[in-house]
Design a protein that fits this description.
This protein is an alpha+beta fold. It is about 35% helix and about 25% strand. The protein contains 6 helices and 10 strands, in the order H-E-E-E-E-H-H-E-E-E-E-H-H-E-E-H. It has helices at about 20-30, 80-100, 105-120, 165-175, 185-195, 220-230; strands spanning about 35-40, 45-50, 65-70, 70-75, 130-140, 140-150, 155, 160, 205-215, 215-220. A 5-stranded antiparallel beta sheet has the order 8-1-2-9-10. It has a 5-stranded antiparallel beta sheet with strand order 3-4-5-6-7. Strand 3 and strand 4 (about 70-75) form a beta hairpin. The longest helix has 22 residues, at about 80-100.
């Protein structure tokens, strides 16, 4: 029955679903895995960086972006949609800074980005974003890890996994996570979670790791990632 409504974004099926949003979530589930873990002193993001050909210049491909000094995000799903949301998030953050002369709180940034995603679920002539976001932030001495879905819903997490094999990733995190994790342990746990179902050999070239502390958000360089991988082998 729902197939009759699958091409209309703004029409509910008789079962009360917007089928296009479910298809968008399916696009997220088929995307490369992303992991987020909150520790006592910061947040760790880790993501698999897939390239379709060895001829790609992989330095031009990124899974993580800084939004403000103390906030960054990664994604699972469609890269071009992520690029658009990153641009909108940066614009929102700059508008707030120009008005109030301080960085936008993470909770407000997430809410406003989620509002943008929600607009694309009830407007004619558009489609939902085929991407879920993991936002890592730090303000007022508090770390934040928040997931935004194509529906515009957003949730705060202690640790989570998105994309391919996300069920196995969450199961692994439920066994390994504890509230007293240090940042270094969180990085190791994130890498081990990514290894669950990882296709091929994991190297510093095909994963990205970002950390967010009270000093700010930054991506680890390849040498640092290589050292973490060597410590686990």
């Amino acid at each position: 029955m729902s197939e009759r409504y699958s091409f209309s974004l703004t029409t509910f099926s008789p079962s009360g679903k917007l089928v296009q949003i479910e298809y968008a979530i399916a696009a997220v589930t088929a995307g490369a895995p992303s992991i987020g873990i909150k520790s006592k002193t910061g947040v760790v993001l880790a993501a698999e960086k897939k390239t379709k050909s060895i001829l790609y210049d992989d330095t031009t491909i990124t899974k993580m972006e800084m939004i403000t000094k103390h906030c960054g995000m990664t994604y699972s799903g469609m890269g071009p949609d992520f690029r658009l949301l990153v641009r909108k998030a940066r614009k929102i953050a700059q508008q707030y800074f120009m008005q109030f002369d301080e960085e936008i709180p993470v909770s407000q940034l997430v809410q406003r980005v989620a509002n943008v995603m929600q607009e694309y679920t009830h407007s004619g002539g558009v489609r939902p974003f085929g991407v879920s976001l993991l936002v890592a932030g730090f303000d007022q001495e508090t770390p934040y890890l928040v997931q935004c879905d194509p529906s515009g819903a957003y949730f705060a997490w202690k640790a989570t996994a998105m994309g391919k094999n996300h069920v196995n990733g969450k199961t692994f995190l439920e066994k390994r996570y504890n509230a007293d994790l240090e940042l270094e342990d969180a990085v190791h746990t994130a890498i081990l979670t990514l290894k669950e179902g990882f296709e091929g050999q994991m190297t510093e070239d095909n994963i990205e790791i970002g950390i967010c502390t009270n000093e700010g958000f930054r991506k680890l360089n390849r040498t640092e990632v290589k050292d973490y991988l060597a410590a686990l082998n």
